[in-house]
Amino acid sequence: MSISLRRGLTATFSAMLIAASPVAIQAVSLSTASADTVSVYTAPSSLAGDNGDVIKSVASNYNGAEATQIQYLSRDNKNKQVAVSGTVLVPNNPWDGPGERPIVAYAPFTFGMGPECAPSKTLAGEGAGDLVSGFQGSFIDTLLGAGFAVAQTDYIGPWVEGSGEHPYVNRLSEAHTVLDVIRAAQRLPDTGLPSNGPVGIAGYSEGGSAAASAAELASTYAPELDVKGVYSGAPPADKSVLASSLDGGMYVAFLGYALIGINAAYPEANMMDLANETGAELFLEARQTCTLDAILRFPFQQSRSWTESGQPVASFLSQPPFDAIVAENKIGNLKPSMPVMVQHSPVDDVIPAAVGKRMAKDWCGKGANVQWQELTSVVPFFSHALGMLTAPSDATAWLKRAFNDQAGDGNCGQF
């Protein structure tokens, strides 16, 4: 990609977002943790304890909230225990709803693969935050503004030493890390948060699939949690569709991220054996990028240029052993036990709206309480990113209703 084209795309993308919402890219200030040497990104030599136990915590400050960076225990897709980082934020404003202050697990949208991309770092003004990372703060600020405490996970990734590559959009590991960050928030001392109070889950894009996966697994993986509602925005619920829809487009980097994720979660599949020199180089480069850098570095590439055989990635994902991996990561096969809202822009330019709608319909077919709603889209380009401008307020309003036991009966059969 030429430097001039990259600069042009950066300017266009930035102008679109700034014009649409200045608050979306405002500086988010979580100050450097403390003067001691504790780091939640350095894992202990051995792990022991229960899922959701807090390994380390470091107090920090955040505008309008008391924040604590944490390292906690969770499980990967093979049920192996792993250390995960994140942030717990308790707003200074009181909770004026019924009962105890709720905790909302915030599942971040795509932030990248590099060690410096973790949301708990970029929220702290550390790491390698980019334009896109500002949206994470906007979503969290909206939740905090409603009086919710927020438990934000970084998912599994190289930001914590020894935790391996980020298993991007992996259904099991991301569900586990989302549910366990709620447990960690409930167990974190001196926060004033209830240990068994009401909780919710919210996420968009990658976070939408993580939230949806957590909705499916909550009743079996974390049955003690009182999950009142889950918001899933623009979820990439079916990776087989995305392998084709992303290929050759502006956001083909996300397909590269997905392949790195498969390689991390399923090393036995020998994903790298399929790559040619170009593909191997892309793997090495992409795993060090944050979102915007990846989008601008790899746009419009055809995945057949990455493979030794010259076949597109989609053709491999329909064959063993990858077909079983894709099937294991499809969302919509298990009934959520709580009310769920699913939103998607009808002109989403990254994740086709049919993917989110299909997941919602699959849940409806299993008798779940599902509220489907189309996200407002002002333009048919950059619509996935621009959907993040209204998703936080929509998610927050719906979770308020859920915490008031007013989520309703959904609208299955009407979409």
Automatic annotation (TrEMBL):
Pfam families: LIP (PF03583). Residues 1-26 form the signal peptide. Keywords: Signal. One of its GO terms (biological process) is lipid catabolic process. One of its GO terms (molecular function) is triacylglycerol lipase activity. It comes from the Bacteria. InterPro entries: AB_hydrolase_fold, Lipase_secreted. This is Secretory lipase. It comes from Amycolatopsis marina. The lineage of its organism: Bacteria, Bacillati, Actinomycetota, Actinomycetes, Pseudonocardiales.
